[in-house]
């Protein structure tokens, strides 16, 4: 075969077909467990610095764990800084470290901020805490609840890790959260309850429930 024939044959070779990833782009790639874990970790970081409330963390973590493609995971983080950007502290509300009701009623709901350690005291009164839209400080939050002939009612989003301990003296402690798996990467709410002739009740609500 002549040199000219070889060159002609080389020029006639067709390029290899593009792979499915090259044709459709990375967004259509199947997500792996490590991809999901990475996104859940980022969501936890964003929650700890106040970009997400506990309810938003719960919703987005559920979406991340159910994601089938990398595009689905990108959508979960669409309005948040990327991993390459520093997770700087954002302007935040002042943390509430004391919540007290003396022969009265106190209600904390909507978008508010828990301190790393918050004390709640109900003296012949009632304290209602809805943590669904609350901002938190760090991966663990401690709530010390003291009900002296009073009632303390704490509501947490479904799937958030809750630990209730303490001591009841002629009183009652109750944990009535939904029997669902704790969300991977969930921050922990540590509740230390001390009802004295009173009650401390912890219950959960689904992320899809209406806000009141």
Shape: elongated
Tally of DSSP helical segments: 5
Radius of gyration: 25 Å
The N- to C-terminal Cα distance equals: 84 Å
**Would you tell me the overall average pLDDT?**
84
Q: Describe the biggest sheet? A: 5 strands, parallel
Please give a structural write-up.
Helices cover 24% and strands 33% of the residues. The protein is α/β, with parallel strands linked by helices and 212 residues long. The protein has two domains: 3-76, no CATH class; 96-205, no CATH class. The strands form two sheets. A five-stranded parallel sheet has the order 1-3-5-9-7, with no helix packed on it. The longest helix has 16 residues, at 33-48. The model is unreliable at 3-24 (pLDDT under 50).
Task: Summarize the SSE layout with pairings.
Blueprint: H1 3-11, H2 20-24, H3 33-48, H4 54-66, H5 70-76, E1 96-102, E2 105-108, E3 114-123, E4 126-130, E5 140-148, E6 151-157, E7 161-166, E8 172-176, E9 188-196, E10 199-205
Parallel strand pairs: 1-3, 2-4, 3-5, 4-6, 5-9, 6-10, 7-9, 8-10
């Amino acid at each position: 075969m002549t040199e000219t024939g070889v060159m002609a044959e080389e020029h006639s070779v067709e390029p290899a077909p593009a792979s499915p990833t090259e044709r459709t782009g990375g967004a259509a790639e199947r997500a792996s467990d490590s991809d999901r874990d990475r996104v859940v970790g980022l969501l936890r970081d964003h929650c700890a610095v106040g970009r997400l409330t506990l309810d938003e963390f719960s919703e987005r973590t559920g979406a991340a764990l159910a994601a089938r493609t990398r595009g689905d995971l990108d959508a979960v983080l669409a309005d948040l800084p990327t991993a390459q950007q520093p997770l700087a502290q954002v302007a935040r509300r002042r943390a509430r470290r004391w919540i007290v009701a003396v022969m009265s009623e106190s209600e904390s709901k909507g978008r508010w901020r828990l301190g790393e350690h918050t004390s709640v005291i109900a003296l012949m009164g009632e304290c209602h805490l809805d943590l669904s839209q609350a901002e938190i400080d760090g991966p663990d939050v401690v709530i010390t609840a003291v009900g002296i002939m009073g009632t303390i009612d704490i509501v947490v989003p479904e799937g958030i890790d809750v630990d209730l301990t303490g001591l009841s003296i002629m009183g009652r402690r109750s944990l009535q959260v939904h029997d669902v798996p704790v969300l991977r990467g969930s921050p922990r709410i540590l509740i230390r309850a001390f009802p004295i002739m009173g009650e401390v009740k912890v219950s959960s609500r689904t992320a899809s429930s209406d806000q009141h």
